[in-house]
Design goal:
By secondary structure, the chain is an alpha/beta fold. It contains 11 helices and 8 strands. An 8-stranded parallel β-barrel has the order 1-2-3-4-5-6-7-8, surrounded by 7 helices. Bound molecules: SN-glycerol-3-phosphate.
């Protein structure tokens, strides 16, 4: 399998998005109602700010739980910017809505996925992304990463194009395991994304180089 491992920031805080983007490593953003609530701003204001900063996919979640209303909300959200991806929950009505939206050319991210067969349902209706929640499975003493591996295998068995977006990532090891297993995207909060840069030997090594450089005759 060839391609790129994409990093999305799982946040609605514009300052975090701007900083991650400034390093050239940000491929997109995922939001959810809980993350938007933390900003204290309106949903549309938050999305407007994010889409101005990020050209890659920006997931925005519907809050309706019946498919006709989800479709209506999704269409309104999609009009905000060309890079909006409509997030729908993995319930029957969400799958129904995803099929209608995708057929209408609106990309969907099916969220709150906790099993491989749920992921297969999302792929069958042509969802652009499936979001398995790793950390929340780990919290229940189930191996979240095992789910990523299962979905990868099932999608590859049949050539489904739905991208696996590893979500609820809590630390750099989750991100590494997701990459090893061939997830297409890892979405993570700002903290874990910044931790990806760090290694104490890098800091020590740089310190030594800089000190030795002072001894070089100028
Ligand atoms: O992308 C899903 C994420 O927002 C959930 O993360 O840490 O609340 O399980 P968490």
């Amino acid at each position: 399998m060839w391609g790129t491992m994409k990093f999305f920031l799982d946040t609605a805080i514009i300052e975090e998005i701007r900083e991650a983007n400034s390093y050239g490593i940000l491929d997109g953003v995922t939001t959810n109602p809980s993350l938007v609530a933390k900003t204290g701003k309106t949903f549309y204001k938050v999305l407007e700010e994010i889409c101005e900063e990020v050209k890659g996919p920006v997931s925005a979640e519907v809050t309706a739980i019946e498919s006709p209303k989800m479709v209506q909300e999704g269409k309104t959200l999609a009009k905000l910017a060309p890079n909006i991806v409509v997030k729908v929950p993995l319930i029957k009505e969400g799958i129904k809505a995803a099929k209608i939206l995708e057929e209408d050319g609106i990309r969907c991210n099916v969220t709150l996925c906790f099993s491989a067969m749920q992921a297969l349902l999302a792929a069958k209706v042509g969802a652009a992304y499936i979001s398995p929640f790793i950390g929340r499975l780990d919290d229940l003493n189930q191996d979240g990463m095992e789910l990523i591996g299962e979905i990868r295998q099932i999608y590859d068995n049949y050539g489904y194009k739905t991208e696996i977006l590893a979500a609820s990532i809590r630390h750099p090891l989750h991100a590494k395991q997701a990459a090893l297993l061939g997830a297409d995207v890892a979405t993570m909060p700002f903290g874990p994304m910044m931790q990806l840069f760090n290694h104490p030997l890098t800091d020590l090594g740089l310190d030594r180089f800089l000190k030795d450089w002072e001894k070089v005759p100028k």
